[in-house]
Amino acid sequence: MSEQKRVAAIHDISCFGRCSLTVALPILSAAGVETSVIPTAVLSTHTGGFEGFTYRDLTKDIRPISKHWQSLGLKFNALYSGFLGSFEQLEIVSELFDDFKKDDNIIYVDPVMADHGKLYSIFSTEFPKGMAKLCRKADIILPNMTEAAFLLGQTYKPGPYTQDYIEAVLRDLSKMGPKMVVLTGVCTQDHMLGVAVYDSRTDRIGYESSPLVDGFYHGTGDVFASVLLSSLLNGFDLMKSARVAVDFTVESIKRTKDAGTDVRFGVDFENSIPSLIKALNKI
Ligand code: PXL
Predict the structure, then answer these.
(1) Mean pLDDT of 26-32
(2) Pairing, β 6-16 against β 78-81
């Protein structure tokens, strides 16, 4: 049996609403990956559609956790960052990447900050510049179409998109630094939604999509990113991992839609975990 993989997941804890660490931790663990966490903040809910959420900032804890881990000589197969709440956190996480980067591990950055053409409410219009700087250090980034436009300093365009547009965005993002780019929320045909994947080492571009399910379900970016990383760490290539992650996310969204759950509550990914374990050939 191959050695168990270990990830450091650096995200907030949104206590209610199924996103960030409450999604990353169960998914990676179910995929057999040891998941260490650095909580960057604790919120009563995520910021997408709830009023009056609490926000306890944990910025001051990140460096001491990192220093302690370094003193223990800990090593990680992947450093996985998601929602980061301030420029200071971006800076500290960037330092942490320098401290834990090795030749054979991956820096995996989900540049969580925007969707549907808009920055999340807590971010200033300058924030994408800071996130773009962090993305330069990544091996893999996973922006949605809005985040991709903002990282490139461009105006967001709603879909459907031409293949030329998608491929220019993928290549431009990769030129910033990351070897691999996974663009989410890509719609090139009516009623289909999916992802476009670029690996600059082979210059290969691929697409994976599924029939569109109406409705904006919260936290699906975190679900998708956590499954894709789980699949990569189980030895699958980027294209296959994108397929596994699309299938898992769509299955979770459909189940949630059928149940009629409030879209702010996140998706029922828990009941897709058995399919993930099967897709990763773990049973
Ligand atoms: O799902 C991304 C996310 C993570 N964490 C917090 C958020 C969001 C998106 O709104 O508000 C706190």
Answers:
(1) 98
(2) parallel
Dmax of the chain from CA atoms?
Answer: 53
Q: Do residues 52 and 252 touch, judged by C-beta distance below 8 A?
A: no
**What does the domain layout of the chain look like in residue ranges?**
6-274
Model confidence pLDDT, tens digit, residues 35-62: 999 999 999 999 999 999 999 999 999 9
Please report, for the chain, how many H helices and E strands are present, in that order: 9, 11
User: Who's near 115: CB < 8 A, 6+ residues apart?
Assistant: 144, 146, 147, 185, 216, 221
DSSP 257: H
SS3 115: strand
Protein residue with its CA nearest to atom 6 in ligand 1: 46
CATH number given to 6-274: 3.40.1190.20
Q: How far apart are CA 160 and CA 54, in angstroms?
A: 37
For residue 142, report the distance from its CA to the centre of ligand 1, in Å.
15
Its pTM stands at: 0.98
C-beta 19 within 6 A of ligand 1 = yes
Q: How confident is the model at residue 283 (pLDDT cuts 50, 70, 90)?
A: confident
